[in-house]
Amino acid sequence: MKTLSRVAAILLILVLAAGTACADTLSLNGTIEAGETVPVYAPIGGTVESVSVEQGMRLNTGDTIFSYRTDKTYASEDGKIAGVFVQAGDDAETMTERYGADLYIEGNSVYTVSASTQKAYASAETKMIHTGESVYLMSKKGRYGVGIVTAVDGNNYTVRITENDFITGDVIYVYRDSEYSAKQLIGRGTVARANPTAVNTTGAIVNVAVKNGDEVRRGDLLLETLTGTFDGYRMSGTSVTAQETGIVASVSVEAGTVVTKGDIVAKIALISGMRVEAPIAADDRKDLKAGDKVTIALESDETKTYEGTVRYISELPEEDSETIQYKVIIDFTPDENAVFGMSVIVTTAE
Question: CA angle at residue 63 from 60 to 65, to 5 degrees?
Answer without folding.
Answer: 120
